[in-house]
């Protein structure tokens, strides 16, 4: 059978049970031809077929058809990924997962919710709110980003410093593997388990390469009664990090903690200047800005604010940012699907140039070194710096998940390649500094080709696990084990 004959036969079989929810129409496929990762302007990767399943059983049938014709299967969620995780550069069947968006059970007694994995985090929280509950795993893209994609790419959350990442919420998940079987992995509604192997953990950051997550059960928490957001500036980056460490160690109710470099701070001062027509009172010596939010009962939050001031200002000589409007502007930008401050500074930013990031992680003590490498490497590859933000994603710890952001000139293949050269060198530097190449974007079509450099012999074990879940390598091929952009 030729490739075209295979695709035609597969489409006929898919349409037999999906009807017009299986199509090869170019206009529909076009909407699934890229994500938010930098690629040059007229570059598109069309999948061959688009399907929109409504439940696990339909996904099983889809994968069985794909297995029969050995066609790639790629799960697509909000399409806001920044690493090309959904890009079908090897063709195949694109699975639009947002048709699976039902809440299957809300169980307040057990502080638990079971959903189909295509529901967005925003929608899920709207459904939980009447119960006084919420899922605290909240990437800034939560209006578009689904539960399945959060598991798939292990994204960061605004509230990671208190609640951790998706794995800290997940108790079980159903995955349709590359063997065409639906398997439930995890420990029912229990928070953890020491029986068997923790196979559920393998799904986190797997980017659909082991299978498609179709259902998940998650732990939820009580909505806090009140929240206050404040910011402090420091003389060095490491002062900000150490001040945060000390604040967390004091036991205060810190709910989110983001440390930004001087360049990133300029976005917020610029936005403030534009909106209020005056200069914010930020000292010239400020090299970093730490945004903290505190949440809980009012008296605890009030106490936390006062105590935090005594630590950050008294012990670490930070200066409290008095322009609360600037702080609110920052907070607002965390809850919209847009880079508000960037847009204010460069109104054409997303049209003229794309946002791109090296999302490495290093231990706290290597932060300054990594930052200096950022300045050097971005200059070497002619990248226009946006700045650095350090997210913290382990409960009560300084655990840098870093966005080293630049503007990408996406006008030609060469300028985009240059961005990926920058990502490669930043990634290798992070490994050298005892860190990791990616903390929230994932391998996508960028990093897989030199994953062995980070993982050594364990990379071979990863290959064998992949073969166990996906013997014919049909689940999102071209990710994790090879790179399209960057070669070792
Ligand atoms: C404005 C904006 C703000 C952002 N803010 C953040 C942030 O705060 N933190 C952060 O970490 N990232 C952020 N990102 C990056 C991105 O949004 C996140 O990585 C997000 O998780 C991607 O979700 P998505 O639903 O759009 O996934 P997609 O891009 O559609 O998919 C991401 C990956 O998950 C896989 N996948 C999708 N569904 C499934 C499934 N059901 N089963 C298995 N695999 C699946 C896909 O194949 C792909 O590999 C932001 C992006 C934008 C554009």
Structure description:
The protein has 488 residues and is α+β, with helices and mostly antiparallel strands. Among the domains are: 3-98, Uridine Diphospho-n-acetylenolpyruvylglucosamine Reductase, domain 2 (2-Layer Sandwich), CATH 3.30.43.10; 102-222, 2-Layer Sandwich (Uridine Diphospho-n-acetylenolpyruvylglucosamine Reductase, domain 3), CATH 3.30.465.10; 226-345, Alpha-Beta Plaits. The chain is built from 17 helices and 18 strands. A hairpin with a 4-residue loop joins strand 8 (170-177) and strand 9 (182-186). It binds flavin-adenine dinucleotide. Flavin-adenine dinucleotide binds at residues 35-36, 74-82, 85-86, 97, 117, 139-141, 144-146, 148-150, 152-153, 155-156, 207-208, 212-213, 337-339, 440, 476.
